[in-house]
Design brief:
Strand order of the largest sheet: 3-2-1-4-5
Order of helices and strands: EHEHHEHHEHEEEE
Number of helices: 6
Largest sheet: 5 strands, parallel
Strand content: 15-25%
Low-confidence stretches: 159-169
Distance between the termini: 22 Å
CATH superfamily of the largest domain: 5'-nuclease
Bound molecules: zinc ion
Shape: globular
Length: 169
């Protein structure tokens, strides 16, 4: 069975996970999703088709060294390093639309797939709403700039994303 490592955005925005793959995520991704109020969806995914795995220290070190060489290290979060290391170690494909991650993946020989190409065609749009004053933000804003309250992520609407050229129908 082929496998793929998913980054946070694939779970955050993606509706259908590729069913022909074994999907794995890292503890860092789990944390990011919890932080964005996605705990419920996450539990469901972990119960069904997504497994949580940690990369080995050796794999993390290898990715960190490669990132230092290419200069990507400053643009990559701990979680980015972690998912790269896991894909590297498992020889799985990495599903991500993040350019810095894709760049380093190429250097260390990890195959990457964009969300559309991976078959995650339907896209959720999320927005964040302040739990204090109700102001709306883009999904990645975690704290309100008006009243300082934490935001909660909610689904805005579902849109069909453009199909990638050459992808299967
Ligand atoms: Zn507020």
């Amino acid at each position: 069975m082929k496998g793929c490592v998913l980054d946070s955005s694939a779970l955050f925005y993606g509706k259908d996970l590729p069913s022909e793959y074994e999907c794995v995520i890292t503890p860092g991704v789990v944390q990011e999703l919890r932080r964005h109020g996605m705990a419920e969806r996450l539990e469901l995914l972990l119960d069904t088709k997504v497994r949580e795995l940690s990369p080995s220290i050796l794999a993390v070190r290898a990715v960190r060294e490669a990132a230092a060489k290419t200069g990507d290290v400053r643009r990559l979060s701990e979680t980015d390093i972690e998912i790269l290391a896991l894909a590297y170690e498992m020889k799985y494909e990495l599903v991500t639309d993040d350019y810095s991650i894709q760049n380093l993946a190429k250097v260390i020989g990890v195959k990457t797939t964009g969300m559309e190409q991976s078959g995650i065609r339907e896209v959720f749009e999320w927005q964040a709403k302040c739990t204090g004053c109700g102001k709306l933000f883009t999904a990645e804003v975690e704290e309100c700039d008006i009243c300082g309250s934490p935001t909660r992520t909610k689904r805005k609407k579902t849109t069909k994303s453009r199909r990638a050229p050459g992808s299967r129908s």
